[in-house]
Write a structure and sequence with these properties.
Layout (H helix, E strand, L loop, with lengths): L5 E5 L4 E6 L11 H16 L5 E6 L10 H5 L1 H12 L1 H12 L1 H10 L5 E5 L2 E3 L1 H7 L3 E5 L5 E3 L13 H4 L6 H10 L2 E2 L1 H6 L5 E3 L4 H10 L23 H18 L4 H13 L4 H16 L2 H18 L15 E5 L3 H12 L3 E5 L3 H20 L5 H9 L1 E4 L10 E4 L5 H15 L4 E4 L6 H4 L9 E6 L8 E6 L5 H13 L3 E6 L6 H18 L3 H11 L5 H8 L1 H15 L6 H13 L12 E2 L7 E2 L18 H21 L6 H12 L8 H8 L1 H15 L7 H9 L3 H5 L6
Parallel strand pairs: 2-3, 3-4, 4-6, 5-7, 6-9, 10-11, 10-13, 11-12, 13-14, 14-15, 16-17
Antiparallel strand pairs: 1-2, 7-8, 15-16, 18-19
């Protein structure tokens, strides 16, 4: 037996240690070669009477990160090719068979007649966790690096190698559904508490514990293969079962609005599978899995949230000519909420931080933000007191710009005012000199104009963080007209250091994310002024796939900020650049009523102290008219929300602000939550078909105005039949 991905070592007790260690890969993944070798290993174990049991572990820091999604992405194309070659029925039979391959191999492990124990030394996710679920015993390392989970729903798939059948047989159905729906990872103690692993052991004892279980008479039979096995939550058609399934269906619809086929498939798999013996249940799962693998949602989400995001995280936009930087000391000027957040994530990444503000009290307050964040992690058991001391020790709060000397990069995060930023740049560069890369965290001010105050504009760049910095994963890197490759490379290295995802955009008003999300918020404003009920606006936005409604989002970013942006836009671009209905609404709220949003406890919502936020009752009267909800086309409202953002994304590509659809898609999902099931703003257009999207835009223009007008680029692509991914990345990426 020749193996490339596994090493076998049999001890004197007849226990085989199977070490999974794929050559040339940083982590183990499930692919066809792994399946072939596992099949051969099972044959070997079953055939050799001297083998008493098997311990499966990993030779890498992680156990396994799941299936090779590049292989899955090609599944739809392979199916289409098979249909052409052999017909629909034969192609479907082959596809379902292939989709169930891992499930069948894992079931062979489970029914091999020999005890298998999994020694989980690190992260075990997706199919990597599912293979351990097919083992008869699971012991996981007591380590912060170790965790288990089934995150497939986050890329439009679901656990299709037994996860939807074994999990509900290990725990109560409501808990199983929540675990499968959310796709969250669990640390060792929590995994044991939920009956997903049998034991937690020190890293050095994992294999010994697994072998001890086998030598102690470990049974080679899964609980569900025992004659008298009973489901944790009993039968589906029982009084208790009827208390589970109607609420489960309601929860599914509340959380997904039927936008995610994979989540619906989980619900069906569990419901149908729990009524069947395990072997039949696994076949049901495989059929649904084959269906979801061919869904447009899975294809779009895998491309954007796995492949494209991975490419961007690895430096797809980094200038190859620039040597890798070694960023050890970072300056942050401005210790307000944004600057304090930047200091925290930078110190968390292990770099030294100098946090500067106008006086020591302000700087200390900024450092206290890091203290509060890390203290919260300590309280939840996610960090230790030693971690806290080390992190705070890496942050120096100061009112002296001279402390910035020796910094490898400086990020300015002062008030969003051109004059304040200019003064800060001059003062800092007077200490640093012209050669240190200087970045501005601005959300609206053009980088090219800010760079005029820099001694060397080629070393000036924009790094736009999103709030709250510690939670938001996207960072927008903005190239000014004179920004050089060294500044870009340094900025990208910094973003990689702090483990966030970068997109690179060219300078323009509002850059990329704020242009798109500004359209989303504006659409909510205009709907309100048309007389659409406020609650309907918020609910339909979520039905369209957005994480929060536009009114709620505006409260979070502050309505008075929207007022300043509208006034600045009118001043710079003229009266025609703003919508008078939107200006009237925001003026009423901010100037007349002093409703600034969450920050002063009143905006589109009221924020009672100690209570839940509620839509302000006075909202409905601001428009001076109210539409009958029964006469409103909900589907059109959903289209307005998505098209308003997507057409703006298309404009940014037509203008050369964004040059890569991967960045537009990833940026739209991570930056402002654009309906993830679509794959992002550009994938939404490609998914509809550019010609169909243009037609939809024209319909909305006729009904609601020129803000939906598609750029000439879209009309050109509609005529040629091109997609964005074909035009800008190449047919292979499409």
């Amino acid at each position: 037996m020749t193996l490339a991905n596994f090493k076998l070592d049999t001890d004197s007790d007849g226990i085989v240690l199977v070490t999974w260690d794929m050559p040339g890969k940083p982590m183990n993944v499930l692919d066809q070669t792994v399946m072939d070798e596992l099949d051969a290993i099972v044959d070997h174990v079953v055939a050799d009477a001297a083998i008493k049991g098997v311990v499966l572990t990993s030779g890498k820091d992680a156990f396994c990160t799941g299936a090779d999604l590049t292989m899955m992405q090609s599944g739809a194309k392979q199916f289409a090719d098979a249909v052409k070659a052999r017909g629909q029925d034969a192609a479907m039979t082959e596809f379902v068979d292939q989709a169930g391959r891992a499930s069948r191999v894992f079931r062979r492990i489970e029914t091999s007649g020999k005890p298998w124990a999994a020694a989980i030394n690190g992260v075990a996710l997706g199919g990597g966790f599912e293979i351990t679920l097919a083992c008869h015993y699971r012991v996981i390392a007591d380590s912060p690096k170790a965790s288990v989970g089934l995150p497939e729903v986050k890329v439009g798939l679901f656990p299709g190698a037994g996860g939807t059948q074994r999990i509900p047989r290990l725990m109560a159905t409501p808990d199983a559904l929540q675990f499968l729906f959310k796709g969250e990872s669990l640390k060792p103690a929590r995994a044991k508490q939920m009956n997903l692993v049998h034991d937690v052991a020190p890293e050095g004892e994992l294999v010994a514990r697994a072998k001890a279980w086998i030598k102690g008479g470990g049974k080679p039979v899964a609980p569900w293969d025992e004659k008298n096995f009973k489901m944790p939550s009993g039968k589906i058609f029982s009084p208790f079962g009827m208390m589970i399934w109607p609420p489960a269906n309601a929860l599914y619809r509340k959380e997904t609005y039927d936008n995610y086929p994979a989540v619906k498939a989980i619900l069906k798999c569990v419901y149908e599978g729990l009524q069947l013996p395990i072997d039949q249940a696994l076949k049901v799962e495989s059929r649904y899995f084959a269906q979801i693998m061919r869904s447009k949602e899975a294809a779009a989400m895998i491309r954007s949230l796995f492949l494209s995001m991975g490419e961007l995280n690895k430096g797809a936009r980094r200038p190859k000519s620039e040597p890798r930087t070694n960023l050890k000391k970072i300056g942050v000027i401005g210790a307000g909420f944004m600057g304090a957040g930047i200091a925290y994530v930078t110190a968390s990444a292990g770099a030294q931080v100098v946090l500067v503000d106008r006086d020591q009290a302000a700087a200390d307050k900024g450092k206290a933000h890091s203290d509060a964040l890390i203290s919260s992690r300590v309280a939840k058991g996610r960090a230790t007191e030693a971690d806290k001391a080390a992190l705070l020790g890496r942050i120096k709060a100061s009112a002296d710009y001279n402390d910035l000397k020796g910094c490898d990069l400086v990020v300015e995060a002062v008030f969003e005012d051109r004059g304040v930023k200019a003064e800060t740049t001059k003062k800092a560069q007077g200490v640093l000199g012209p050669d240190v890369v200087f970045a501005s965290n601005t959300s609206t001010l053009p980088i090219t104009s800010l760079a005029t105050e820099a001694q060397k504009p080629e070393n000036f760049i924009g790094i736009h963080f999103f709030s709250p910095v510690d939670k938001m994963m996207l960072v927008e890197i903005i190239m000014g007209e004179k920004t050089g490759d060294r500044a870009l490379a340094t900025a990208l290295d910094f973003v990689r250091l702090i483990k966030k995802t970068p997109i690179v955009v060219n300078d323009t008003r509002g850059f990329y994310a704020n242009r798109c999300v500004g359209n989303y918020i504006r659409e909510g404003h205009l709907m309100l002024m048309e007389g659409v009920p406020p609650a309907m606006i918020e609910n339909v936005a979520r039905m369209a796939g957005m994480p929060v409604g536009p009114l709620s989002l505006n409260d979070e970013v502050a309505i008075d900020l929207s007022w300043r942006v509208v006034q600045a836009t009118k001043k710079d671009l003229g009266e025609q650049s703003i919508d008078p209905a939107q200006e009237k609404l925001i003026k009423t709220l901010v100037v007349d009523l002093e409703r600034f949003g969450r920050k002063n406890g009143k905006g589109f919502y009221d924020y009672p102290q100690g209570g839940k936020k509620k839509l302000w009752p006075g909202l409905a009267g601001l428009a001076g008219k109210a539409l009958d909800p029964d006469t409103i086309d909900v589907e059109e409202l959903k289209q307005r929300f998505l098209v308003a953002q997507a057409v703006e994304a298309a404009r940014t590509m037509a203008e050369g602000v964004v040059t890569d659809p991967r960045e537009a898609d990833v940026g739209s999902i991570l930056g402002f939550g654009f309906a993830p099931f679509t794959g992002g703003t550009i994938s939404y257009i490609d998914g509809l078909g550019v010609a169909n999207f243009v037609s939809l835009c024209d319909t909305l223009v006729a009904r609601h105005g020129d803000r939906f007008s598609p750029p000439a680029l879209l009309r050109e692509m509609a005529k040629s039949g091109e997609t964005f991914y074909e035009r800008f990345v190449g047919a292979k990426a499409a």
